[in-house]
Each structure stands twice: as structure tokens, then as C-alpha cells.
Amino acid sequence: MGDFKESCPPPTPKPCPPKACVEKDTERKNVTVEVSGKIKRQGPTILEQKEKSQGNSKTIWYPGFDARFPNQNQTRRCWQNYVDYFRCQEKFGEDYEGCEYFKKTYELLCPGFWIERWNEQRENGTFPYPRR
Fold first, then answer.
1. What are the tens digits of pLDDT across the range 115-124?
2. CA 47, 48, 52: angle at the middle one, nearest 5?
3. Most buried one in 5, 88, 100, 115, CB count within 10 A?
4. Which portions of the chain have biased composition (kind: Pro residues) (predicted)?
């Protein structure tokens, strides 16, 4: 127990590659990374890509959660909002802005061919509700 042996000295860190460098141009348009004389990556910076993508971004509207339709299948919600849109128009008139919520919701949730079929049924008087 009394014998204490000196431990080996810690290993020395490896030196960096001789030509490793990162060059950034002043306009921050391109980043060039060189390792041992070979170009690894060249292209727009992340900041530039973000600036470009912000110019093309669109705002996506989604109606959000409706407690009456908690399940993944939103078929009933689609139909209910279609019916509610026309009920709202009957009650408040066609120019009432509050009805647009129902229209945006059913247009988002319902397949287009369902809406076309329901519109045809309404014109023919065969859709269950509302009557024209």
C-alpha cells in the first residue's frame, strides 16, 4: 500500500490539420470550409437561406380543435360546418362575415368532390338541409 507509482503523463492533444480554416466573405453569402486543401462545402449561409425562405412564407389557417369532434376522423365535422354555413346565411343573410368561418372550415376539411356533390344536391332540392 505504501508504494505509490507515478502515473504516466496525460497524452498530448493532436495538432489541428495544417490548412484547416473557415473563410467567410464580408457579405455573408457563401461559406467555404477547407480541410487539407479540399473544399468540403460551399453555398449560402443559414442566415441567407432563412432570409430567402421568409420572403416566400405563407400563413396557413386551421380551424383548431372542436370538442364536438374529438376523434381523428373529421368527416362529420366537415359536413356539420357545410350545413352550418348555409344555416348561418339563412339566419343572418349572405353578407354576414361570421358565416365565413364555417365556409373556410368546410373548404379546408372536406374533399372538393363532396362539396360539388352537395352543391348539386342543394340546387336539385335533394340535400337534407338547408333548402334553397
1. 999 999 999 9
2. 120
3. 88
4. 8-18
